[in-house]
Amino acid sequence: MVTNGGGSGDADVSRILSEIETLKVAKSDIERRISLLESQLCDTATTANIEGKSDAVSNGYCPLISAVHSNINHDLTPDSVYRYSRHLLLPSFGVQGQSNLLKSSILVVGAGGLGSPALLYLAACGVGRLGIVDHDVVELNNMHRQVVHTEAYIGQPKVKSAAATCRSYSDGIFCFVVSVLRSSDKEVFSRINSTIQIVEYQEALRTSNALEILSQYDIVVDATDNAPSRYMISDCCVVLGKPLVSGAALGLEGQLTVYNYNGGPCYRCLFPTPPPTTACQRCSDSGVLGVVPGIIGCLQALEAIKIASAVGEPLSGRMLLFDALSARIRIVKIRGRSSQCEVCGEDSAFTQQQFRNFDYEKFTRAPLSPLPLKLNLLPADSRISSKEYKEKIDNGESHVLVDVRPAHHFKIVSLPNSINVPLANLEARLPEISKALKEEEECKADNSDSGASLYVICRRGNDSQRAVQCLQKMGFNSARDIIGGLESWAHDVEPNFPTY
Amino acid sequence: MKSESRDREIEVEGCDAVLPSPFSKIRSLNMQLTLEFGGGLELLCESVKVHKVNVDTPNEAEKLTMKDLLSWVSTNLIKERPEMFMKGDSVRPGVLVLVNDCDWELSGQLDTTLEEKDVVVFISTLHGG
Ligand SMILES: [Zn+2]
């Protein structure tokens, strides 16, 4: 038997790695507690200072409170009082709510359609520390809903763009606080500029970094766009004991709930088995009205603010269903925590280590960072490139081009002389294709000995392959698909051709 | 959905003498229900979200359960891709069922008993953002 000499060494390595991971999590927890205490210390020091040396806090940014004569029983700076005065005027929110908010930390995963409005409001409302996770870049065709981004950032990381906008909302917060450094019985005062802290994570959330990132925040906002991320974030929140504000939007509908809050259910309690991948539609395929995720994202900010400020009744054990077309919002009662839940249930022993090793892509049969599907169903001789197709047009080859996209896609843009037969109706509309081929052959009968060719195109080159398979089965043996569809046409042949 | 006390009343079914007399002769009840589909499930029933329907209880049965309703919906409303609605004798994973705005997990899932004018919502969970 061949033994691996490194066997026991490997075990050591994995033990050490695991210990390092555990210590890292503990470390970040301690760091979080330290920063919380530091901010408390700063705030306390400020109050002390206001009562003592009023000149230290004058900054001209807000009406100066005559500190000597004021009686302040809270830890808000004069600037915070002014900036958040409308919050403070709410009897049910007030000083305590704002003070809680300023000490809280919220992580928003995803700076897209949901994350954009959520981040804007969270940055503006005075959350102490705001984290943003996203690995993607800003694209023009997302800007109709991803309102945190500006055109200047197209092509740049969403996190960078979102953080810049959030800072522009919060940079005005010049609360000159005083840090107290005690040394040899002397109090040394020094000014620091404390703004809302925005933390950027320009990376995809994975099981390898999720524990470390999420553990540094009090509340997590799920503003992602795919099933594996939703399971992963929920599980991580359960393992770390963090409340999760979960929102989703597609087309003209939205959904919202709070998971893992105060003994309430987690995502898996509701959805123990992942849905089939065909049921997971994406905005880039199905479309989305920009304001719909906008509304859900705002509601996510609201729920996060309620939890952070300890005001009101979070949407836990209930779910909000929003239907934009019929202008209806329905709030339904959902099941509580399931004792049989594999992650948060009574008998569950789902540990941090299990979380790290869990394969969410395999579990949901979907990628964490979805890329457009690229099928390869046909042999090479049943396919041509968009450049080859262009040559055939230039050579005047007699052919018919069938566009198999849905009719509302065809209306956006199409190639000249293509006929639209959506894949869903292909079999029923074969006679139309036969007729078009016959007409083509008749008008170019003089220069062709074999019949007209049949080409099939779609948006990205997947449905066209499915259509060619179907056509060949039905006797259209010459049918071929154009590789990469209209996207490749725009990329390789006609740069000005509109893409979507 | 029935209250628990009324559910117990039903347990004596099969013993005609015990049932209130007006019901003892009725073999099949017709029930008016509102069914709603959302989160993309409406695409399986010709893009119509709200369906006001009349459903007969199965032969010899005095009540209509969610199990009965699911099979009625599959037969009468789902026009395409039935696998996107059902799996086995229940809904597929990722579909929430709400009876009068309440998760059917809380009322007994397939065994939930429906009553006249109940509103049943089938909604597919969304993942987009
Ligand atoms: Zn659970």
From TrEMBL, chain A:
Report the cofactors.
Answer: Zn(2+)
Q: Which residues cross the membrane?
A: none
CC cofactor note? Binds 1 zinc ion per subunit.
Give the matching SMART domains: RHOD
The active site is formed by: C283 (glycyl thioester intermediate), C458 (cysteine persulfide intermediate)
Where does this protein reside within or beyond the cell? Cytoplasm, Cytosol
Q: Which UniProt keywords apply?
A: ATP-binding, Cytoplasm, Metal-binding, Molybdenum cofactor biosynthesis, Multifunctional enzyme, Nucleotide-binding, Transferase, tRNA processing, Zinc
Tell me which residues bind ATP.
G113, D134, N141, N142, M143, H144, R145, K158, D225, N226
Biological or metabolic pathway of the protein: Cofactor biosynthesis; molybdopterin biosynthesis; tRNA modification; 5-methoxycarbonylmethyl-2-thiouridine-tRNA biosynthesis
Q: Where does Zn(2+) bind?
A: C266, C269, C341, C344
Tell me the function of this protein.
Plays a central role in 2-thiolation of mcm(5)S(2)U at tRNA wobble positions of cytosolic tRNA(Lys), tRNA(Glu) and tRNA(Gln). Also essential during biosynthesis of the molybdenum cofactor. Acts by mediating the C-terminal thiocarboxylation of sulfur carriers URM1 and MOCS2A. Its N-terminus first activates URM1 and MOCS2A as acyl-adenylates (-COAMP), then the persulfide sulfur on the catalytic cysteine is transferred to URM1 and MOCS2A to form thiocarboxylation (-COSH) of their C-terminus.
* Protein family: In the N-terminal section; belongs to the HesA/MoeB/ThiF family. UBA4 subfamily.
Instruction: Report what the protein is called.
Output: Adenylyltransferase and sulfurtransferase MOCS3
Lineage of origin: Eukaryota, Viridiplantae, Streptophyta, Embryophyta, Tracheophyta
Name of encoding gene: MOCS3
From TrEMBL, chain B:
Q: Where in the cell is it found?
A: Cytoplasm
Q: What does this protein do?
A: Acts as a sulfur carrier required for 2-thiolation of mcm(5)S(2)U at tRNA wobble positions of cytosolic tRNA(Lys), tRNA(Glu) and tRNA(Gln). Serves as sulfur donor in tRNA 2-thiolation reaction by being thiocarboxylated (-COSH) at its C-terminus by MOCS3. The sulfur is then transferred to tRNA to form 2-thiolation of mcm(5)S(2)U. Also acts as a ubiquitin-like protein (UBL) that is covalently conjugated via an isopeptide bond to lysine residues of target proteins.
Q: Which interval of the chain is the signal sequence? A: none
Q: What is the source species?
A: Xanthoceras sorbifolium
Q: Which family does it belong to?
A: Belongs to the URM1 family.
Provide this UniProt record's keywords sorted from A to Z: Cytoplasm, Isopeptide bond, tRNA processing, Ubl conjugation pathway
Post-translational modification note = C-terminal thiocarboxylation occurs in 2 steps, it is first acyl-adenylated (-COAMP) via the hesA/moeB/thiF part of the MOCS3/UBA4 homolog, then thiocarboxylated (-COSH) via the rhodanese domain of the MOCS3/UBA4 homolog.
Query: What is the name attached to this protein's record?
Result: Ubiquitin-related modifier 1 homolog
UniProt key word Repeat? no
UniProt keyword tRNA processing present: yes
Pfam families in the cross-refs: Urm1
Where does this protein act, in terms of pathway? tRNA modification; 5-methoxycarbonylmethyl-2-thiouridine-tRNA biosynthesis
**Cross-linked sites for Glycyl lysine isopeptide (Gly-Lys) (interchain with K-? in acceptor proteins):** G129
Superkingdom: Eukaryota
What residues bear 1-thioglycine in this entry? G129
